[in-house]
Every structure is written in C-alpha cells, then in structure tokens.
C-alpha cells in the first residue's frame, strides 16, 4: 500500500517503520529539531488513525519538507537515521554520503542504489588526489591509455556489499572505493568479496616479485 505526495510515492510500510523509530527517539530529535519532532508526532497520529489519506499525505509532506531543509535531499524516511549519519566523524573536510539499500519491488525484489552517489564518490576521490583518478587496487590511470574518456573504465565499489545493507542504510564515501573494471571483477570473484586493501597488497607483492 502506498500514497503519493506531489513528487514521489511514499510506501506506508516504510513510513510506519520510520515513524516508529523516530517516535522512539523523539526526545533526541526534539532537542535538535523541535519543528521536525512536532511534524513527526502529527504524522504518527495520522498514521495511527488511518482514516484520512489526505491528512496522512499532508503530514508526510511536512515531515519530508523539514527533513530536506535540515538534512538535504534524501530518500531516507527516518530522521533518526539521518541524525546518526550527521553525527559520524567527517571524511576529510566534507561528509559525503548516500542513502541506499531500500527494498524495491519490480518482478523481483532488489536493493536500490543511490543514483548519482557513484559519480559523487569519483569526484571526491579525484579532487582529493589533485584531479587524477586511478584504480585504488592496481594504480592504473586509464586516461593514460584511453585519453580523457578513460575514467569511464573506473567503477565505484561498495566495500559493504549492497545485499548486506539494511533499508535506508547510510553509505559514506569512505565506504566506497574506485577501482578499474578488471580489479572490480576480481574483487567480486569470491564470497565474501576480496577486500580492496588485500587485493592492492597482492598486486603490489606480485609487481615487486616480478621486478626482482
């Protein structure tokens, strides 16, 4: 079952779960964001009454409006999760995260990826390294071989596999790695996946052995 607001579909089961989490932590939310706490309580009352879909929709809109104003655009339903994400220590000077892992249903159930987060992660690491993006396992700079379009050979890898994420999980940029397609394939060749650091160490060891 779902309802719609002006811009997207709200799944009632997700909303009920999020509101239950937020109501359990309402005192903490109120200490930081009293207007949001009031909106969450009003929406919780509307869901509990379950009689007026217009009231459910409008109170949901208000919660979403305040969350976006406070935390930025996100698909996370829970203010508690967003506060937890903000409380994490920053990555260098800027905290970059995406919300992923929500269960969506088509013909099969699959885990949602945050569209655009991979691109943001690439930009973060490129800026961090002075404008040069290389594979964090083998060190390949594909632009040397393929020119400016070579960066398309580099992919964003989730260090925590998507299938292990809980709904609305917060993925930080330091939980992503930028790797070439070949290394990415090797990483996923085993279960559990090979750690990026372990593969990088193996490649370095192989290079040093070959040089000797």
From TrEMBL:
Which residues does the UniProt record annotate as the domain HNH nuclease? 120-185
- InterPro entries from the UniProt entry: HNH_nuc
Superkingdom of the source species: Bacteria
Protein name stated in the entry? HNH nuclease domain-containing protein
Native organism: Frigidibacter albus
């Amino acid at each position: 079952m779902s309802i719609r607001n002006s811009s997207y579909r709200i799944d009632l089961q997700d909303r009920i779960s999020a509101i239950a989490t937020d109501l359990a932590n309402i005192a903490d939310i109120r200490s930081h964001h009293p207007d949001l706490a009031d909106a969450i309580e009003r929406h919780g009352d509307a869901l509990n009454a379950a009689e007026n879909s217009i009231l459910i929709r409008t109170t949901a809109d208000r919660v979403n409006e305040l969350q976006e104003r406070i935390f930025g655009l996100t698909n996370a339903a829970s203010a508690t999760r967003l506060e937890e994400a903000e409380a994490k220590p920053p990555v260098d000077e800027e905290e970059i995260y995406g919300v992923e892992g929500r269960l969506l249903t088509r013909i099969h159930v699959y885990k949602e990826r945050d569209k655009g987060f991979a691109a943001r992660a690439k930009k973060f690491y490129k800026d961090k390294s002075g404008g040069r993006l290389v594979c964090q396992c083998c060190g390949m700079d594909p632009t040397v071989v393929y020119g400016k379009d070579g960066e398309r050979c580099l992919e964003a890898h989730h260090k925590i596999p998507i299938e292990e994420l809980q709904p609305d999980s917060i993925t930080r940029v330091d939980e992503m790695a930028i790797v070439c397609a070949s290394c990415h394939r090797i990483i996923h060749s085993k279960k559990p996946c090979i750690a990026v650091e372990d593969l990088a160490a193996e490649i370095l060891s192989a290079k040093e052995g070959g040089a000797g």
